[in-house]
Amino acid sequence: MWPIIMNAVRGYAPYLVLPIAAGVGFIGYNFETLVSDRYTPYRDSVVERREERRLEEVGEQTESIKEHKFVPKTIFEKNVSPGLRKD
Fold first, then answer.
1. With contact defined as beta carbons under 8 Å apart, do 27 and 35 qualify?
2. Which helix (H) or strand (E) segment is 31 a member of?
3. d(CA 65, CA 78)
4. Are the CB atoms for 69 and 63 separated by under 8 Å?
5. Which of 22, 54, 72, 84 is the most exposed place for a label (fewest CB within 10 A)?
6. Nearest to residue 32, comparing CAs of 24, 21, 42, 22?
7. CA distance 67 to 29
8. Does residue 62 contact residue 70 with C-beta atoms inside 8 Å?
9. pLDDT 10s per residue in the chain (87 long)?
10. CA–CA separation, 18 vs 30, rounded Å?
11. What does R_g of the chain's alpha carbons equal in angstroms?
12. In Å, how far are 2, 5, 30, 33, 39 from 36, measured between CA atoms?
């Protein structure tokens, strides 16, 4: 008798598991909606925060941002070894 039942369960497993999984998911989703806080405070985007932080760091290092000493004039000045710098 058990082999016949196990054969039937194995063959119809997707039809048995899918409704159970859907029911558990539906109940869990609604429970989480009731329990959790939906309010998410506004924050600046990651890119905006990074730009502000970089400007603050640059402001601490240089006297004026208008001088643009941190921007290389050509691509060849970007990764110059310390021995070859003209500072």
1. no
2. helix 13-35
3. 18
4. no
5. 84
6. 24
7. 55
8. yes
9. 989 988 988 888 888 899 999 999 999 999 998 998 878 788 889 999 999 888 888 766 655 555 666 666 776 667 777 777 776
10. 18
11. 31
12. 45, 42, 10, 6, 9
Report how far residue 69's alpha carbon sits from residue 63's, in angstroms, rounded to the nearest whole number.
10
At 68 the pLDDT is 62
Q: Which amino acid is at 81?
A: S
Q: Are 72 and 78 in contact (CB under 8 A)?
A: yes
Closest CA to 44 of 36, 53, 35, 55: 53
DSSP state of 12: T
